[in-house]
């Protein structure tokens, strides 16, 4: 999911709307007859049972790059196509579809780090279950039954129009096996974006819970368990994983809920605790989303938090810095701050106490360093924003900043979300595994 970041030009997260677009299908449909060589089923190594058996039960790990501030997003490199070519993708657990800016030809594309993706002609039919999962209703119509048209719209005014097709992903498994796996992706050939939300990427890596997401497709081919997760470092970078790449002994778990379309990693209800004391704000529905750099609370939780923060800071040696537009709320000290460690003593931790986890309530702790940044002006700024101002309504979104230095696990088989402290600077490796 993406939402426009208040005061910054970095893309963030919002609820995705998928619409069937019939107006462009005929134009792109001509490309299906362009004479491109299609990928034969036997060419994908994952179609060979012996290799699939070797990969089954293994895992996939990708290093990721970026940070919350000043970069504003995390990205991963995937090799796609024949021959495989590298693409930088924005890691987004809040949306379903993986898509690339695509030379179909491209009607409108932003600047990309690599040449535009050249699509295969292995189109997914309109009534395929993967296509159906991207449509707003079950009774959608097909302008062209031989291809799947889609449109994704984000609340930051970014949108992408494209067609769904199959192509080959080159994947390294932790047991040393390398496979070419044929999976679906979106060919986005018409993007609308605001310069204020632009950053140079080749596309989006959709890791949500829908049928078209990468983890769902890998699992449907028997290659990994339907479990994925990530570890984002406060120093920048980290890793994402598919399958079993975590130590469960130090994990807290809460059930996945279905507060929306069931395609997001949602949990709740939760109660907001500030500095170890109850705030009186409860029944919070939570979405964990790497597509958002920052965290968003609904109006009640946000106002309660601001009120408590103001009381805490009343006689502290930091004052409001309205001239700093990095984020809606910033404070300055007697001299510029160089790190969160210099200022975190003035702030108290936040905790989301989940009430549906049995007698022991799972606690998702958000220490000051997981909700504050130091701006390039040397001020400290609040990385928790007012959700209703960007169209999130009553949703509460836990973004990258509040998941730093934690391993986050999304177990779609057991319907659980887990978290625990971790060194996200160390990418897990097996004896014979190389990235």
TrEMBL record:
Single GO molecular-function term? aspartic-type endopeptidase activity
Q: Determine if Transmembrane is one of this entry's keywords.
A: yes
Query: What GO biological process terms does the UniProt entry carry, in alphabetical order?
Result: proteolysis
Membrane-crossing segments per the record? 6-28
Task: Name the catalytic site residues.
Answer: 92, 289
Q: Which Pfam families match?
A: TAXi_C, TAXi_N
Q: Which InterPro entries match?
A: Aspartic_peptidase_A1 (IPR001461), PEPTIDASE_A1 (IPR033121), Peptidase_aspartic_dom_sf (IPR021109), TAXi_C (IPR032799), TAXi_N (IPR032861)
Keywords, A to Z? Aspartyl protease, Hydrolase, Membrane, Protease, Repeat, Signal, Transmembrane, Transmembrane helix
- Peptidase A1 domain spans which residues? 74-420
- Similarity-based family: Belongs to the peptidase A1 family.
User: What protein name applies here?
Assistant: Aspartic proteinase Asp1
Which organism is this entry from? Medicago truncatula
Q: Could you read off the lineage of the organism from its UniProt record?
A: Eukaryota, Viridiplantae, Streptophyta, Embryophyta, Tracheophyta
> What is the name of the gene encoding this protein?
11438564
């Amino acid at each position: 999911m993406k939402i426009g970041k208040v005061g910054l030009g970095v893309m963030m997260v919002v609820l995705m709307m998928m619409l069937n677009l019939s107006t462009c299908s005929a134009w792109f449909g001509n490309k299906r007859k362009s004479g491109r060589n299609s990928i034969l089923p036997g060419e994908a190594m994952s179609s060979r049972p012996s290799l699939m058996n070797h990969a089954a039960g293994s895992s996939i790990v990708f290093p990721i790059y970026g940070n919350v501030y000043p970069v504003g997003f995390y990205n991963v490199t995937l090799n796609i196509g024949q021959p495989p070519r590298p693409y930088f993708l924005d890691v987004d657990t809040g949306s379903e579809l993986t898509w690339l800016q695509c030379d179909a030809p491209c009607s409108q594309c932003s600047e990309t780090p690599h040449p535009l993706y050249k699509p295969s002609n292995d189109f997914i039919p309109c009534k395929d279950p993967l296509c159906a999962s991207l449509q707003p209703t079950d009774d959608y119509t097909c302008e062209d039954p031989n291809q799947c048209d889609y449109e994704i719209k984000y609340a930051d005014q970014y949108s992408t129009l494209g067609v769904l097709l199959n192509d080959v992903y080159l994947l390294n498994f932790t047991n040393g096996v390398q496979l070419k796996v044929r999976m679906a992706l979106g060919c986005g050939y018409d993007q609308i974006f605001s310069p204020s939300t632009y950053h140079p990427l080749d596309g989006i890596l959709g890791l949500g819970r829908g049928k078209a997401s990468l983890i769902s497709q890998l699992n449907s081919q028997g290659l990994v368990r339907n479990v994925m997760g990530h570890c984002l470092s406060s120093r920048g970078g980290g890793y994402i994983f598919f399958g079993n790449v975590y130590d469960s002994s130090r994990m807290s778990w809460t059930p996945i809920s279905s507060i929306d379309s069931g395609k997001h990693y949602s949990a709740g209800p939760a109660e907001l605790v500030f500095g170890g004391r109850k705030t009186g704000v409860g029944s919070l529905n939570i979405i964990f989303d790497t597509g958002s750099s920052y965290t968003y609370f609904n109006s009640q939780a946000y106002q309660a938090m601001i009120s408590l923060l103001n009381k805490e800071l009343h006689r502290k040696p930091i004052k409001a810095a309205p001239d700093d537009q990095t984020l809606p709320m910033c404070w300055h000290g007697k001299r510029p701050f160089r790190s969160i460690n210099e200022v975190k003593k003035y702030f108290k931790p936040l905790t989301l106490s989940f009430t549906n986890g049995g007698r022991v309530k799972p606690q998702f702790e958000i220490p000051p360093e997981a909700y504050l940044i130091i701006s390039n002006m040397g001020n400290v700024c609040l990385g928790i924003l007012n959700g209703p101002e960007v169209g999130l309504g009553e949703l509460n979104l836990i973004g990258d900043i509040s998941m730093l230095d934690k391993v986050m696990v999304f177990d779609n088989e057991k319907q659980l979300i887990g978290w625990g402290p971790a060194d996200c600077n160390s990418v897990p490796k097996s004896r014979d595994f190389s990235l």
